[in-house]
Write a structure and sequence with these properties.
Radius of gyration: 14 Å
Distance between the termini: 33 Å
Number of domains: 1
Order of helices and strands: HHEHHE
Strand content: 5-15%
Structural class: alpha+beta
Shape: globular
Number of helices: 4
Oligomer: single chain
Helix content: 25-40%
Strand order of the largest sheet: 1-2
């Protein structure tokens, strides 16, 4: 089943990819301990997804968006910052759009 958010993004002519940063690391949540999955790891997952889609001829590199909810929303915000990507050593990509719903708030 595909979330409605990705369907809406697809209708706008943008590619959307779903990445399970939790399951791929054997996690189901990081609510009680944010150190289990940090922002750099999730941003790297998004960048890997971008590169995977960009390598596929069906997708236009300049039409790939990042969309996220909660921790994923933070990923969308982080990857919008050129300085953040540069800090990660990433200078060769730019998402077409960054949509963050209810990014995480700690404190």
């Amino acid at each position: 089943m595909r979330p409605r958010s990705t369907t809406s993004v697809n209708r706008a002519g943008l590619a959307a990819f779903l990445i399970d940063s939790f399951g791929s690391r054997g996690l189901s949540t990081s609510v009680h301990d944010q150190r289990l999955l940090n922002n750099c790891q999730t941003a790297n997952d998004a960048v890997a997804g971008f590169r995977w889609l960009a390598a596929d001829a069906r997708f236009q590199r300049d039409r790939i968006a990042v969309v996220g909810l909660s921790k994923g929303g933070q990923v969308a915000m982080d990857t919008a910052l050129t300085v953040y990507l540069r800090w990660m050593g990433i200078t060769d990509l730019k998402f077409a759009a960054h949509v963050g719903w209810r990014p995480i708030a700690i404190g």
